What we know:
The complex is a heterotrimer of chains A (44), B (225) and C (243).
Chain A: H1 7-43
Chain B: H1 2-22, H2 24-43, H3 48-72, H4 76-80, H5 83-89, H6 94-123, H7 135-156, H8 163-191, H9 197-223
Helix pairs in contact in B: 1-6, 2-3, 2-6, 3-6, 3-7, 3-8, 6-7, 6-9, 7-8, 7-9, 8-9
Chain C: H1 4-26, H2 40-67, H3 70-102, H4 110-131, H5 137-165, H6 179-226
Helix pairs in contact in C: 1-6, 2-3, 2-5, 2-6, 3-4, 3-6, 4-5
Amino acid sequence: MNPAGSIKFLYAAYIATWLIHGLYIGSLVRRYGRLRERKKELGK
Amino acid sequence: MSSLRSITLATLTKDVRLEWRSKDAINSMLFFSLLVVVIFSFSFDPNAEESRQIAGGLIWVAFLFAAVVALNQTWARELRNQVLDAYRVSPAPANALFMAKVLGNFILVSLLEGLMAPLFMIFYNLRALGPAWQLIPVALLGTWALVVNGTFFAAMSLRTRSREIMLPLLLFPISIPAVQSMVEATRIILTGDGAARFWIVLLLTYDVVFTTACLALFETILQAE
Amino acid sequence: MKRAFPILAAVTALLLAYAFYEAIWVAPMERTMGDVQRIFYYHVPSAWTAFLLFFVNLIASVIYLVRRNAKADAVALVTAEVGVVFCTIVLVTGPIWARPVWGIWWTWDIRLTTTLVLWLIYVSYLVLRRFSESSQTPKLAAVLAIFGALDVPLVYFSIWFFRTQHPQPVIGGGGSIDPRMLHVLLLNWLAFSCFALLVSWARYRLEMFKREVEEAEALESLLVAGSGAQISKTQIPLSREPQ
Lengths: 44, 225, 243
């Protein structure tokens, strides 16, 4: 084990965590946008 | 209780008789099982010592695939002839139908295993160093574990897109403790290294828990189709 | 109620930032592993949060089966989805941590393996919900959740015994924990729990919005069909919105 070089794994883990959360929240935003479109279609 | 048993028996004998007459499903499944054994034999060619270690895993994975092929056609006939609708409106207990299907699948898959096991023994030159008779409860309990949940999930998958892939997708994760038990028990019996008792007891527990769950919830999902 | 969401969002953001600061700069350095050990402050809270979410899913599923309450079903769907997200993070950070410390990506560590099986079960749950074309999908999903819950103790036992036969490294250590580290761990867990609540709430509102739109679309197509008018293409509700 190399404590000096292993710091990049720490970065990787934290970045991966927020990347995954970000992707999920992004998908929620996209789905919301699409639903708003559909609702607008209904109103017509 | 006797009506449950008689309906179960009637449905089971009907299924067995129909299958025996046409031999559709069983023939293609037998050939499929043979192919699986051969392909595995080409893919993994270990020496005698190694093969005893890994044979448990290979055999049960092969059985798992054969079982899925068998399970996928469980409800095909019922679906074609609207039998499930009839069951929904009849006072007959749904569990009778379920048990009949499970028993039918159990017989079918056991038959396939009975064919594949000797072939594996031949291709891998297997010989059990431990108590070989213990392989029987392992096979019985393990097959039941796959078949009881498999029949249940086959019913759940009836009204899904890609029905054939839905069954293994649902079955495999839930079956993990059972498959691990079967594989480990088989490995221990073949290598004679340790006691398989824990795994056999775990398999038994798994079977009891999930048979109960399936019987308790089958009516619910039958109504759901 | 409407204002609670932005307030919670602000509080959560602050908590997450503070917890991050503590994890990286305040928590003491671990003796054997060095700074890499700080992954622990993200890995473990994510696991606890995922398990909590799946537990809520189980409760909601049982409530749905007993009461047929549509909101319970929505909660079940939401917690399953968010739970899978957190579970994915556990499965990604685990190996990232294991690699520099133990030299291997994967080990049949009991908690990590149980998490993997839970992930598989809940992904199959989400696949069932998406692919099922029965009108009673919520009921089927609820039954699957119960099967999953029954499976988990069996999974735990089988891995536990497997490990006594095949000794493997334990990720995250089993021993007692330095109280300063425990403090940072709990802080991060609080922050991530608030975050999970926030995301689940947002997802729940999205789900309710989706059901509202789908109902309106169904109603519209019924009315249009009833009046004998031409149904234009845009008004036919899609039973499966491409995601």
